[in-house]
Amino acid sequence: MFGKNGIIIVLGSPNSPDGVLFSVAKARCEQAYKLWKDNPTWKILLTGGFGEHFNTTPYPHAKYLSDYLVKLGVAPDRFLEFASSRNTIEDASLSRAIVEGQNSKCIVVITSDYHLARARYLFEKEYKTLSLSMLFIGVRTDESLCEFDLPSQIQHEKRSLERLMAQDND
Questions:
Q1: CA distance 133 to 33
Q2: Is 89 exposed, middle or buried (0-12, 13-18, 19+ CB in 10 A)?
Q3: At what angle do helices 88-100 and 116-127 cross, to 10 degrees?
Q4: Are the C-beta atoms of 153 and 133 separated by less than 8 Å?
Q5: pTM (predicted TM-score)
Q6: Count of H helices and E strands in the chain?
Q7: Radius of gyration of the chain measured on its C-alpha atoms
Q8: Are 74 and 30 contacting, i.e. CB atoms less than 8 angstroms apart?
Q9: Which of 12, 16, 61, 102 has its CA 20 to 30 A from that of 26?
């Protein structure tokens, strides 16, 4: 679909204190799996390390994403090293360092619909000097399945993006 050497980047999100992925993370993984099935030569880069607000387990959040994707059917050799990030800013910067080591002309960033605008802003800013195509997919979040306060998270995303844009305009 996009060529042979693309990278699918799945952004992390909260998991339970015992490492169970929330519905938001599973939906992101399921979207990544569908894309990978259409592009089986692509690599997958998973983000998410540790953080008080999203993962306090002994393992990086990306490991839980990887385990879930393998259960869905992704071959283990398709994964790049994890970007053990603590937030979306680090998702962009740490993933860039990994992407630069690959021979890729295209990346697809998968996140949730409520997080898409801020993720796009940060990735486009971080990757602006790289010569590659970028596509962003915002997976629909089902509020009835969401394990956290989605309206509060949507407000947080809006405020955070406004703050980032204001800082960049100073």
A1: 20
A2: middle
A3: 40
A4: no
A5: 0.95
A6: 5, 4
A7: 15
A8: no
A9: 102
